[in-house]
Amino acid sequence: MSLKNKRQIDKREWQYNRKHFGIGVFFIVGLIFVVFISRFFYIGIYKNVNGVNLPKKAAQLYATKTEVKAQRGTIYDADNQPIAEDTSTYSIYIILSKKAVAFGKREYLADKDKDRAARVLSKNLPINYERVKKILNPVDKDTYQVELSNAGKNISLETKKKIAAAGITGINFKESQARLYPNGIFASHIVGIAENESGKMVGVMGLEKAFNSDLTGVNGVRSFEKDIHGTPIPGKKIKTQKAKDGDNVYTTIDSRLQTYLETLMTQAQNKYHAASSNAILMNAHTGEIVAASQRPTFNAQTKDGIDQVWRNTLAEDSYEPGSTMKVLTMSAAIDSGVYNSSSTFKSGTYKIDGKTIDDWDTNGWGYITYRDAFVRSSNVGMAHLEQAMGSKVWLKYIKRFGLLKSTGSAMPNEASGSIEYKYPIDQANTAYGQGVTVTGLQMMQAFSAIANGGKMVKPQIVKKVVNPNNGKVILKNGTDVVGQPIKKETANKVLEMMQDVVYDKNGTGSAFKIDGYRIGVKTGTAQIGNSSGTGYLTGNTNYIFSVVGMAPATNPKYILYVTMKQPSTMGSGTSGQMLASIFNPVMKRALEEDKETTTSTPQIKVTDVVGKSTTAAKMKLSGAGLFVTTIGNGNKIIAQSVSKNSVLLSGERIIILTNGEKTMPDISGWSRSDVLKLASLLGIKFNISGAGYVSSQSVATNKSLSGVETVNVQLK
């Protein structure tokens, strides 16, 4: 075959192959096109790709969900005033980087503003000017933003507004949920605290912890569709799932008595410097704890002092009660029938199995009756009564009085107590409060049997728990009678002996007399075990001094129990005088308030006294049961802090303004609410800082308010 013919054949083959290749490519492309078109049709019809719903996915891209925060429940006092509630706090951060520019606007702190910023921040925060200046001028010039450490955290709304009012660009605030404890040092270990953990408030102590699940709410959700600029699309429905706020807890605490108790406890602590002290005031009939505190304590708002003791010592600490236990010993002896009013014994010392029991006066008082043993607080007399009862009977009464087991109060980690009861000497020791440990709550429960005609009531700190979303009562605590360890006749006889402790010439409780009221008490002095556990500490102040009192003695409504451990500065005073500095004022205040509430109308409708003479207005308002504060020396009333027909509780404050020269009243001890009413009435700005009650004022009492524009007030 010639070369020419061969070339022609190759050309035809190439053209043939090219033609078929083209046809193949055409069909492949066509097939791919068909597949794509089919896929598009499938997607268009079914709107689903790999199990993903496209319309739903698109909606999600343009949908925004916002969490609606639920409020943590509020804890209230007995007058339904908040003692723990939700609030917001703020943290400061300052942008320094000159790159922080958005939409042509500067968002950083300019160099020219740094000095002014330092002055504003140091004026309103616990940090000095030089420290702020140093922070605002870091060594690393590329620093984007800075913070002010702890000084710039947990700032109140009030402080935030003051700083923001300066209008300094670059100073920014981050909001976070927090807990407000408006009364500062106020039953702090009972109420407890809640802390922000990962954006959620969690109770870590006291009622905040015990009722955490009740107090915690359920967050809601708010959702809507937005355009590419993030603006809600008109006409699109906004869906909202409402937040469910946490339940509210209502306590039995009387704020006025609690505040007074806190003041007295602090004064006693500053004077006697005890290692620890407790005080509990309880309604004997209902078991409601109306005031209770401990030292050391802490300010729940600022957390100042919280590192001293974390425990609620009223419930968590067990200790040997000492001679206050003799109230229970005498009750058991009378109730079991072994007490004989005419029987006598030799006081001073008493040997059991070779071990000696001593009276506080080891010389004794010769042969005395068992009534005298109680009045004089004789250990020997109580040991004789325990021996007469027998260890089994006495232990039965110990358990009947609710000792050696938790009271089941709302307080977390309540201790049960313990007892050394193996040998006769151990059994005798418990009769005067050694070798047995108790908690404050257990003793209050046991004492209630004597004050309440033999019926023993459980201590209560929470009245009810209410769901604020629907008003439903989740929990309601009424009077809980948990036993009747003794007969009514027994209780009455012991009450008579407790009065003898105060009014008999040989009684150990003469320091606890209160003018106008009949009181029954029992004092106590308990030894403290040493660290080795084999004996007791020695020294004049290495004791737990205590007193339990009931009043009015003929039909007690209140039981007050005060303990003070290892006071270091008793001086020349007695333990009775030391305890009386707390006991007497608190018991008297409780009895006087009780008298007021039972003889006057609890709620008072306010009368309009504007235009009346000052004398007539004061008589009208105070006669109705209100606490009247008069501003100015004029003879006519021109304004009043509470409007006509408003309802106040008996004893609440009302401020009246006269037409005379306005002078500054003494506002120490006033609440924030009363200070704000005064500010509104005077038309003067009051700068209020702190929490609790007024401790200082920048304008002196009785000073003219003419020309005064602002008054600074510190709460504690």
Automatic annotation (TrEMBL):
Location in or out of the cell: Cell membrane
Keywords attached to this entry: Antibiotic resistance, Cell cycle, Cell division, Cell membrane, Cell shape, Cell wall biogenesis/degradation, Membrane, Peptidoglycan synthesis, Repeat, Transmembrane, Transmembrane helix
Membrane topology label: Single-pass membrane protein
Domain PASTA: 600-660, 662-716
A single cellular component GO annotation: plasma membrane
One Gene Ontology biological process: cell wall organization
Pfam family, one: PBP_dimer
Primary location group: membrane
SUPFAM superfamilies per record: beta-lactamase/transpeptidase-like, Penicillin binding protein dimerisation domain, Penicillin-binding protein 2x (pbp-2x), c-terminal domain
Listed GO MF terms: penicillin binding
Membrane-spanning segments: 21-42
Role, per record: A transpeptidase that forms peptide cross-links between adjacent glycan strands in cell wall peptidoglycan (PG). Part of the divisome machinery that synthesizes the septal cross wall. Beta-lactams inactivate the PBPs by acylating an essential serine residue in the active site of these proteins.
Similarity annotation: Belongs to the transpeptidase family.
PANTHER family listed in its UniProt record: PENICILLIN-BINDING PROTEIN 2B (PTHR30627:SF26), PEPTIDOGLYCAN D,D-TRANSPEPTIDASE (PTHR30627)
Descriptive protein name: Penicillin binding protein 2B
Organism this protein belongs to: Liquorilactobacillus aquaticus DSM 21051
